[in-house]
Specification:
- The complex is a heterotrimer of chains A (about 180), B (about 120) and C (about 650).
- Chain A has about 180 residues and is of the alpha/beta class.
- Chain A has five helices and seven strands.
- Chain B has helices spanning about 1-15, 25-35, 55-65, 70-85, 100-120.
- Chain C has three domains: about 1-160, Four Helix Bundle (Hemerythrin (Met), subunit A) (Up-down Bundle); about 165-415, no CATH class; about 510-610, no CATH class.
- Helices cover about 60% and strands about 10% of the residues of chain C.
- The chains are: A alpha/beta (about 180), B mainly alpha (about 120), C alpha+beta (about 650).
- The interface of B and C includes residues 43, 49, 86, 89 and 111 of B.
Chain lengths: ~180, ~120, ~650
C-alpha cells in the first residue's frame, strides 16, 4: 500500500512545484547589482555627442534611470506616466537611449515628449551590459550615494509606480 | 641589436596587458568565451549562436576585453557579476546545484542495484 | 456566421464529451449493456462535432475573415494559401483545438478497432477518453476561444510569425500531436484496467499497436521538428535541449519504455503494474508538455503567448487526470498482480533493464528541464541548464543503454548465460578495435572512435540477433513483421548514434566579415561570397547572397542565403543556404553588413548530420512495420506464440 502511494506522492510534489512556478516570471532576472554602486562608464549625451556622461551624475540625488529606445513599443506605454512624474517633479529621471540612432532617439522624444533631465546615449550596450539589462523598458532606482536600490523590468504601470517605486523614492530622499 | 631584443622581451614579460594577441587568437578566445555565455534575451542559446542584437553587443564586449589581455575566466567572471549564474550556459557545481548534478548518477546506481536485487536469484 | 457555428458545435461537443465520460462508466458499473454501448456512439459524435468546429476555424483562415480575432492576429491576405491553412494551428487557440480534435479522433477509433475487447473494459476506457476530451474542450471554451470576434474588423491581418511560414510547420505539429495525444489511449486503458482491477496479456496485446502507432508518429514529429529547427532557425543545431523540445522528448522516452514493457506483459504476463504506471506516465508527460508550452512557466523560443489563467487551468487538468489516475493506482495496484521475477542474464532481464535505464534518462531530462523552475520557485535563484548539462548526464546513460541494447536481444527469453554471447563477442572484438584505432588516428579523437564503435556494436548485435532468430538468415521470410520492426528500430538507433557522434566531435564553424569576392576557409572547404544584393518578395524584403563553395578545390553547388525582413511583424529571420550530402552537410548564412565593410558570413560543416534524422526516421518506420504484424492487427485477437 505504501509503495503504491509513492508515484502519487512524487506527482503531487511536482504539481506543487509547478503551481509555485506559475506565479513566477521566468524571463525576469534578479539584478545582481542591487545595493551595488552604478558601474563605472563613460558615454555621451543623446543631444550632444561631445558631452561626456559618467557614473558621477548619479551622486548626491535620488534618481530613476529609465532604459528606452525609439524601437521599443512597450516604452510608449509607460511614457505618459514618466511625463507626468517629471512634470510633478516626483523624482529626477535620467534616460538611457539604448541601441538606437541619435536622430531616431531625438525624433522619438520630439514626438512623444521628453521627461528626462539627462539622456545617456548607449548605442552599443556598453552600460546596458554592465547593468544587466535584458530589454526595454527597464528602470533602476538609484540613491544619493549612487547605489542601485531597485530594478523594475518591463512597463511601469500606474499601480507599480504608486505602490512600489514612489514610496521607495520618498524614503530614499530622506535617507 | 641584442639590446633591442632584451627590451622587447622585458616589455613582453612585464605587462600581460601589453602582450599582443594575434587576431586569430583573439577570435578563437572570443568564440570560446561566447560559447560559454548564455544569450540572456533569447533565453536558450549561447551568445555565439544568437542573432539577437544584445548578443552581438555582448560578443563585442567579450572581444574587447580579450584583446585588452583579460583571460577567458576573467571575462566570464565579469559577465557573471552583472547577469549572475544565469549567464553561464553550464551551471556551476555548487551548493544549490548538487542535486542537479548528482541526482542522475545516484538514480542510475539505485536503479542498477534494484535491478540486481529484484531479479530471481539463480539457483544452481 | 460560420464562426458562430464552429463555436456552437464546440459547445455541443462539450456536452457529448461529458455524456461520453459519464454514461459508459455508469453502465459498466451496473452491467447495463445499453448504457455501455452508448459510449461508442457518443465518441463518434464528439469527434464529428469537433471536426466541424475545426473546419469552421479553417474556413475563417482561408477566406481571411478578419472579424475572427484569431485569423486577424495570425493571418494576412498576402499570405500564401498553404500557410493560411497551417496558420490555423500556428497559434495557441488553433493548436489546442487540433490537439482536442485528435483526442476525440482516438476516442472514436477505440470502438472502431475494439470490437473484440471485453465490453466493460472498452466502456470504461471510452469514458476516461471522454473525460479527457471534456477537460480540454472546457479549457478551450473558457480560456482560449478560437472564435472570438473582433469589432471593428481590421482591414488586414497581422500575419503569421515568419519563422512559422514554412512547410515544416504545416506538418510538424499535427505529427507531434498524433504522437502526444495517441498516448491518451494507453492512459485511458491503464485507468480502465485499474478500475477493472485486471490487466492481462490480452489487454497488453490489444494496447500494443496503439502505443506503436502513437510512438511512431511522435518519433516522426520530433524528427521533423529537429529538421525544421535545423534549417529554419539557422543556428545549425539539430537539438537545442530547449524546454519545449525536452517536453516532447520525455513522452517519447517513456513511450519507448512502455513499448518494451508491454512486450513483456503481452508475452509473459509480467511487469503488469509497471506497464500500467508507464501508460499513465507517458500521457501525463504529454500533459506536462502542454502545460509548459501554454503556461509560459519556462521561457522558450517556441512558446506560445503567455496567459496565467491558461496555466492554472491546464495545471488543474493535469492534477485531475494524473492525480486521479495515480490515486486509483495507489488503491488498486495490489489487484494487478502478474507473474514475478526475471533472470538478470536473459532477454527478459534486458527488457527490464531497458525500462529502468529509459526511466532514469527520462528523470534526468525532467530534472534538467525543470530544475531552474523549481529552484526559482523555492529560492528565487536563477540558473541556466542547457546542452552542456545534458551532454554530461543524459548522454552517458544512453550510452550505457546502448551497451545493453546491443547484447540483450541475443539472449533467450529466460535461462540464458553469458556463455551464449561468447561467439558474438569473439567476432566483434577485432572490428571494434579497428574502428576505435582507425577513428582515433584519422579523426584525431578517441571519443569519436568509441562513439563509432558503439554504433557499430549495436548494429552488429542487432544483425546477429536477427541471424539467431532466422537460423542464420535461412528463415528470414518467415519472420514476423515485429521482428523486422525490432531490427529496423535498433539499426536506426545505431545510425543515429553514429550521426550524433560525428556531429558532436567533428562539426566545424566559423564567422567572418567578407567583402564581395573574399573567401573564408574552413577545414577542406572554401566559402566565397559571390554577391549580396537587396530585394523584395510577396511579404518580406531581403538581403540575398550567393556563396560559392569549393571542397579541396572542387566546386560544389553554390549556396543561396537570405536575411529576411518581415515588415508586418517587424522581424528579421535568416535563411541559410544548405548543401546536403550523406557524409557532410555544408551551410552558410549571410548576416548584416554593407558593400564597403563587407558582410557577416557564418559557415558550418556538419559531418553526418543527416544520419541523425535518417536513424530517427528508421525508428519511426520500424514502428509502422511492426504494426503490419498479423498478430498485432488492431482488434485481432489471436494467441501469441
Amino acid at each position: 500500500m505504501i509503495r503504491a502511494l509513492i508515484p502519487l506522492l512524487i506527482f503531487l510534489g511536482l504539481g506543487a512545484l509547478f503551481a509555485v512556478g506559475l506565479t513566477k516570471d521566468p524571463s525576469k532576472l534578479p539584478s545582481e547589482l542591487i545595493n551595488q554602486p552604478v558601474p563605472v562608464f563613460s558615454l555621451t549625451e543623446l543631444y550632444d555627442a561631445k558631452k561626456e556622461i559618467d557614473e558621477t551624475i548619479f551622486k548626491g540625488r535620488v534618481s530613476l534611470l529609465n532604459v528606452f529606445g525609439s524601437w521599443c513599443t512597450a516604452c510608449l506605454v509607460e511614457h505618459p506616466l514618466l511625463m507626468r512624474a517629471a512634470a510633478r517633479k516626483d523624482v529626477l529621471i535620467i534616460g538611457m537611449d539604448w541601441r538606437d540612432r541619435r536622430e531616431d532617439g531625438q525624433a522619438w522624444l520630439e514626438q512623444h515628449g521628453n521627461p528626462y533631465s539627462e539622456i545617456i546615449f548607449d548605442e552599443a550596450s556598453e552600460l546596458a551590459i554592465k547593468l544587466g539589462v535584458t530589454g526595454a523598458p527597464e528602470s533602476f532606482i538609484i540613491d544619493k550615494a549612487g547605489y542601485i536600490r531597485y530594478k523594475h523590468t518591463g512597463i511601469i504601470t500606474s499601480e507599480i509606480w504608486h505602490q512600489k517605486l514612489l514610496p521607495l523614492i520618498e524614503t530614499l530622499k530622506v535617507e | 641589436m641584442r639590446f633591442l631584443y632584451a627590451i622587447f622581451f622585458a616589455l613582453l614579460l612585464c605587462g600581460s596587458a601589453v602582450a599582443q594577441l594575434s587576431n586569430t587568437e583573439i577570435n578563437a578566445k572570443t568564440r570560446e568565451v561566447s560559447r560559454a555565455l548564455r544569450c540572456v534575451v533569447c533565453q536558450n542559446q549561447s551568445i555565439d549562436e544568437s542573432d539577437a542584437p544584445l548578443a552581438a553587443d555582448m560578443r563585442r564586449l567579450v572581444r574587447r576585453q580579450i584583446s585588452e589581455g583579460k583571460s577567458e575566466d576573467e571575462v566570464i567572471a565579469y559577465m557573471r557579476q552583472t547577469y549572475g549564474d544565469y549567464v553561464l550556459l553550464k551551471p556551476p557545481v555548487q551548493r544549490n546545484t548538487f542535486l542537479l548534478w548528482f541526482a542522475p548518477l545516484l538514480l542510475l546506481l539505485g536503479v542498477l542495484i534494484w535491478f540486481i536485487r529484484a531479479s530471481k536469484i539463480q539457483e544452481d | 456566421m460560420i464562426a458562430e457555428l464552429g463555436h456552437f458545435t464546440l459547445i455541443l461537443a462539450l456536452l457529448t464529451a461529458l455524456a461520453q465520460g459519464v454514461f459508459p462508466l455508469l453502465g459498466a458499473q451496473k452491467s447495463h449493456d445499453d448504457l455501455m454501448a452508448l459510449g461508442d456512439r457518443l465518441a463518434r459524435l464528439t469527434f464529428v462535432l469537433i471536426a466541424l468546429s475545426f473546419a469552421a476555424l479553417t474556413w475563417a483562415f482561408i477566406t481571411s475573415d478578419f472579424s475572427v480575432k484569431l485569423a486577424a492576429t495570425h493571418s494576412h491576405t498576402a499570405k500564401p494559401f498553404i500557410y493560411k491553412i497551417s496558420g490555423v494551428w500556428g497559434n495557441h487557440e488553433g493548436s489546442i483545438l487540433l490537439w482536442t480534435l485528435m483526442l476525440a479522433l482516438y476516442g472514436a477509433a477505440i470502438p472502431a478497432f475494439g470490437k473484440t475487447l471485453p465490453v466493460s473494459l472498452k466502456a470504461r476506457a471510452l469514458a476516461i477518453q471522454g473525460l479527457l476530451t471534456f477537460g480540454f474542450l472546457a479549457f478551450i471554451l473558457f480560456t482560449s476561444n478560437p472564435f472570438e470576434r473582433l469589432d471593428p474588423m481590421p482591414i488586414n491581418g497581422l500575419g503569421l510569425n515568419p519563422l512559422l511560414q514554412d512547410p515544416g510547420l504545416a506538418i510538424h505539429p499535427p505529427l507531434l500531436y498524433m504522437g502526444y495525444v495517441g498516448f491518451s489511449v494507453a492512459f485511458s486503458f491503464s485507468v480502465a484496467a485499474l478500475i477493472e482491477g485486471r490487466v492481462d496479456a490480452l489487454w497488453a496485446r490489444w494496447l500494443r499497436p496503439w502505443v506503436l502507432f502513437a510512438w511512431s508518429f511522435l518519433t516522426l514529429g520530433i524528427t521533423m521538428g529537429s529538421i525544421w529547427a535545423y534549417y529554419e532557425l539557422g543556428w545549425g543545431g539539430w537539438w537545442m535541449w530547449d524546454p519545449v523540445e525536452n517536453v516532447s522528448f520525455m513522452p517519447w522516452l517513456a513511450g519507448t519504455a512502455l513499448l518494451h514493457s508491454i512486450l513483456v506483459l503481452g508475452t509473459r504476463h509480467q511487469l503488469a503494474t509497471w506497464t500500467v504506471l508507464l501508460g499513465i506516465s507517458a500521457f501525463s508527460l504529454s500533459l506536462i508538455g502542454t502545460f509548459v508550452v501554454r503556461s509560459g512557466v519556462l521561457v522558450s523560443v517556441h512558446a506560445f503567448a503567455v496567459d496565467p489563467a491558461r496555466g492554472v487551468f491546464i495545471l488543474a487538468l493535469l492534477l485531475a487526470a494524473t492525480g486521479g489516475a495515480l490515486g486509483l493506482y495507489a488503491l488498486r495496484a495490489k489487484t494487478l498482480k502478474g507473474a514475478n521475477g526475471y533472470e538478470i542474464i536473459s532477454r527478459q532481464g534486458g527488457l527490464v533493464l531497458n525500462n529502468l535505464l529509459l526511466i532514469t534518462a527520462t528523470a534526468t531530462v525532467f530534472l534538467g528541464t525543470f530544475y531552474p523552475l523549481f529552484m526559482d520557485a523555492l529560492t528565487g535563484e536563477k540558473i541556466t541548464v542547457a546542452k552542456p548539462y545534458f551532454d554530461l548526464t543524459f548522454a552517458p546513460i544512453m550510452m550505457l543503454l546502448i551497451v545493453f541494447m546491443g547484447a540483450a536481444p541475443l539472449l533467450k527469453w529466460s535461462g540464458d548465460s553469458l556463455g551464449s554471447l561468447k561467439g558474438f563477442a569473439v567476432k566483434a572484438v577485432l572490428p571494434l578495435l579497428f574502428i576505435i584505432v582507425a577513428t582515433a588516428l584519422f579523426g584525431k579523437s578517441v571519443l569519436g572512435g568509441l562513439g563509432f564503435a558503439l554504433a557499430f556494436y549495436l548494429a552488429a548485435g542487432t544483425i546477429a540477433a536477427f541471424a539467431r532468430r532466422s537460423q542464420g538468415f535461412q528463415t528470414w521470410r518467415a519472420q514476423p513483421a515485429a521482428t523486422y520492426g525490432f531490427v529496423l528500430a535498433h539499426l536506426g538507433m545505431a545510425v543515429f548514434t553514429a550521426g550524433v557522434t560525428a556531429m558532436s566531435i567533428w562539426a566545424k564553424d566559423d564567422i567572418g566579415r567578407l567583402k564581395i569576392g573574399e573567401s573564408l576557409t574552413l577545414g577542406a572547404y572554401e566559402f566565397t561570397l559571390q554577391s549580396a544584393a537587396p530585394g523584395a518578395r510577396e511579404n518580406y524584403q531581403f538581403l540575398g547572397a550567393q556563396i560559392s563553395v569549393k571542397h579541396q578545390n572542387k566546386a560544389l553547388k553554390s549556396l543561396q542565403s537570405e536575411q529576411r525582413f518581415y515588415p508586418v511583424r517587424d522581424m528579421i529571420t535568416t535563411e541559410a543556404g544548405f548543401h546536403f550530402s550523406p557524409t557532410s552537410t555544408v551551410f552558410a548564412a549571410i548576416g548584416e553588413g554593407n558593400v564597403r565593410d563587407g558582410f557577416i558570413l557564418r559557415a558550418n560543416i556538419h559531418p553526418y548530420v543527416t544520419w541523425i534524422w535518417l536513424g530517427a526516421l528508421l525508428m519511426a518506420l520500424a514502428g509502422f512495420v511492426s504494426l503490419c504484424d498479423k498478430r498485432l492487427r488492431f482488434g485481432k485477437d489471436e494467441p501469441s506464440p
